[in-house]
Amino acid sequence: MSRSRAEVFAYRGLEVEADVLRAHYDLDGRAFVEEVAFEGVGDLRAPAPRAGATLWYLVAGLSYLKAGAARHVDLTATPVGPAGRALLAAAIRDGLGEFAVRNDLDLSDVEVTGGAPLVAALAAGDPRRVLVPFGGGIDSVVALEELPADLDQALFIVSPASGPFAALEATAGVTGRPVVRASRRLDPALTSDASLWRGHVPVTAMVTLLAATAAAASGRGGVVMSNERSASEPNLVRAGRPVNHQWSKSWDAEQLLGAALAESVGDALVVASLLRDRSELWVAERFARLPQYHEVFRSCNRAFAQDPARRATTWCGQCDKCLFVNLVLAPFVARDRLAAIFHGEPLADPARLDQLRTLVGRGAEPKPFECVGDPAESAAALRRAVAAPAWAGVAHLAALAAELGPVPDADLLEPAGETRVPSHWLR
User: Fold this and answer.
1) How would residue 2 be classed by pLDDT, with cut points 50, 70 and 90?
2) DSSP letter for each residue of 365-426
3) What is the Cα–Cα distance from 53 to 211, expressed in whole angstroms?
4) Whole-prediction pTM
5) Using CA atoms, how far apart are residues 263 and 277, in angstroms rounded to an integer?
6) Whole-angstrom distance, CA of residue 124 vs CA of residue 22
7) d(CA 379, CA 362)
8) What are 407-424's pLDDT values in tens digits?
């Protein structure tokens, strides 16, 4: 279907009620409304949560800007400072990078105008009370379990209006922690109107800002993210610019989010990734020590379909995400145990060989547009797995590992790189 780009995307106002946010947008005269309802927080109308919600409103708008790939963005009277503008500009340029590639678009011409002066509203949360955005996969489980026991920890879970995700809820139940919730209702036109563009948006940045809003409204001084260092690695480079499916989990995005929040609500609310200086291999090794989660956790995207009728009840065993998680756990979890967890063996399936070659950097395609580790991590996991007697007889794995040659991985099990994590989050 041939589509013309929209001309103007406008921010038409953010309604803030005690426990509901309602964001209004306009795309060439067509109105859109997104609503988020919170449970377990204080009054969102207080100045600090309202300020956090305004940053969410700016970034959440990309779901609707994208629907028409608008050339001009009008912030109207939305209060925003320089750091907030920088975050929005990067979210358009880099957070919509995959969307632009898949739709053969160049969004470098998008112009942003308007906006009103920002008046900061300082948050005053307790630094030892934190929210942990929780997705039910190995990263958020490990981050939660690595935090000091004397921190007051609550999970932050975002669900669609269609209802909670069963796999996520089961994993959350194992943690024993209290849950702060948000239910997000996208404008129905995003999925029902085939004339609108569809594609990837920086969802993690939106969730991060919703969590910051909830923390500010409930007197919490920290939001503990679970984004490891390989999330910063791009999938490909287009016209000299990196394109990263996980941009909103990256180090660049974390710094932009931190600066924008500091500008709006002050430094007392800390938002940082506990796993920023860790690899996926390190996370997998730690997760292997947590058997209480092995039967319930899920990372397969088919378990998180918006339509409840389309949600898978087990790992699909076919997608890149299933294959990567199976691969990265293989060096640390016994093969028979892993097969029971996944209800099969994606890694041992010869039909997955081309996908596996891509994951380890030997395929014809770049790293898939998925939340998977970089090729070095995948290659190290493969080499470690085939060194175990249980995997030695899988011919296609042995052949691919031999093709890779030696893969040094000692540094992947050690911290490396920059981090914004405060000392009281560390054991």
Assistant:
1) low
2) SPSPSSS---HHHHHHHHHHHHTSGGGTT-HHHHHHHHHH-----GGGGS--S-----GGG-
3) 10
4) 0.96
5) 25
6) 25
7) 9
8) 778 889 999 999 999 999
